[in-house]
Amino acid sequence: MIKDLTSFYSKNALNMKRSEIRELLKFTRQPDIISFAGGLPGPETFPVKDLEEISCQVLREKGALALQYGPTEGELPFRQEIAKWLNREKAGIKPENILVTAGSQQGLDIISKIFLDPNDIILLELPSYIGGLQAFTAYRARMIGVPQDYEGMRMDLLEKELERLAKKGKKPKFIYVVPDFQNPSGVTMPLERRKRLLELACQYEVPIIEDSPYRDLRYKGKAVPAIYSFDKENYVIALSTFSKLLSPGLRLAWIMAPTEWMDRMVVAKQSMDLCSPTYTQLIAAEYLRRGLLPRQIENIRKVYGRKLEAMLKALEKYMPKEVEWSKPEGGLFLWVKLPKKMSANDLFPKAIEKKVAYVVGSAFHCNGKGQNTMRLNFSFSTEQQIDEGIHRLAEVIKENM
Ligand SMILES: Cc1ncc(COP(=O)(O)O)c(C=O)c1O
Questions:
Q1: Atom of ligand 1 nearest to the CA of 178
Q2: Are 373 and 337 in contact (CB under 8 A)?
């Protein structure tokens, strides 16, 4: 009998960390818990009827192709449709710039695999997307968090960090940002900051990984151009996904990159899964070809816009004045700051007792800080549950202040 497995595992495997969110989701499956924990889309937004009809058509007309292996880069009709979709933001994007991935999470793994050796430095927002932290940790990157405010990563601090590293002769492998309605904080980086970010990236010759699953989910305010849309120097690699626009169950996303970056990414993906599912790619390609996505997005915007308003209203109504929160204009999340001395981690079991769940903010901090913060999701619960859940959460906070 093997007793100690540790000696068998690679250093990378031993360095991997379980996602706290995935662990928390176990609690939130209990039916009487109101969960603001996961990042799940509202199931009422799934275009079930359209996908049912298109799935049948794909099987009927292209069954032999749909059920077969496909190219690693992705099915051409799907990549053509994605390129067309992205041409709204930047002319000249071609199918050759698109690598289809099984969710953006796989995109992050591919990026990590091709860029990172153990101890390589990367710069990212503080807080940042937990799945990104997980991927980078698995490849043993040294993550340096750059604090953000309500307008995203602070460029003065990024510049200082780049300068500090340059003086030591060190160069980060990339800067990872989620500039639109960030997961976890909900904040969006304004245009000036995006321009400065690109300027700094070019000056210090560090690529930017722009991960933007929520870009199209804006409920108010004016859209800000994607960083890749004004990148003329090929410094930006952009990730996006249909998880929050169509359905995460399709597992369809893409990396959009200058063609020079593509070869290593394709090879990296080959050893992961050979290809993304042909069947779902052909379904999504037909969905896009029929021009159904804009209407779908409009529908989601209406539904989530109402839910966001319901959460902001409930926070205003129930939270004690010492508690602060972000006021996002889109996306799926909102960020809550408790008074400095309070710990969202200590509060968590008490919140579960009161049948409400959230994700502790420290899980999103690569430096383990942010104990007094939490992430709330507003897309999954109904408006009534949002009101009741925030009421419960406010009670737990007040009782423990
Ligand atoms: C910032 C960010 N990147 C990537 C992902 C992964 O999405 P998926 O793998 O479903 O495309 C998510 C999901 O929540 C996210 O918030």
A1: 1
A2: yes
Higher pLDDT, 394 or 25: 394
Q: Ligand 1 centroid to 4 CA: how many Å?
A: 34
Q: How far is the CA of 164 from the centre of ligand 1 (A)?
A: 31
pLDDT at 5: 86
User: Which residue in 365, 385, 366, 384 sits closest to 375, CA to CA?
Assistant: 365
- What's the 213 CA to ligand 1 centre distance in angstroms? 6
pLDDT at 369 over 90: yes
| Contact present, 393 and 352 (Cβ < 8 Å) | no
The dihedral built from the CA positions of residue 152, 155, 161 and 162, taken in this order, carries a sign that is positive
Contact present, 199 and 229 (Cβ < 8 Å): no
Map tokens 């980060």 to a residue: 172
The pLDDT tens digits of the residues spanning 338-362 come to 999 999 999 998 999 999 999 999 9
- Could you give the C-alpha distances from 25 to 39, 45, 205, in angstroms and in order? 10, 21, 39
Instruction: State whether the Cα torsion 122-127-131-137 is positive or negative.
Output: positive
Which amino acid is it at 96? Answer: E
C-alpha to C-alpha distance for 182 and 177, rounded to whole angstroms: 8
Query: What mean pLDDT is predicted for residues 368-377?
Result: 95
Ligand 1, atom nearest to 129 Cα: 1
pLDDT, mean of residues 14-23: 73
Mean pLDDT of 266-295: 97
Q: SS3 of 236, please?
A: strand
For ligand 1, the distance from its centroid to the CA atom of residue 2, given in whole angstroms, is 37
Ligand 1 atom closest to the CA of 108, numbered from 1: 4
User: Which residues, 6 or more positions from 60, have their beta carbon under 8 angstroms from its beta carbon?
Assistant: none
Tell me the HSE value of 342 on the side-chain side, using a 13 A CA sphere: 21
Q: Which atom of ligand 1 is nearest to the CA of 242?
A: 11
User: What residues line ligand 1, using a CB cutoff of 6 Å?
Assistant: 39, 103-105, 129, 131, 178, 183, 211, 213, 241, 243, 248, 253
Beta carbons of 393 and 351 less than 8 angstroms apart:
yes
pLDDT bracket for residue 25 (50, 70, 90): low
- Ligand 1 centre distance from Cα of residue 320 (Å): 32
CA distance 266 to 269: 5
Classify residue 218 by its DSSP letter.
Answer: B
Neighbours of 32 (CB within 10 A): 5
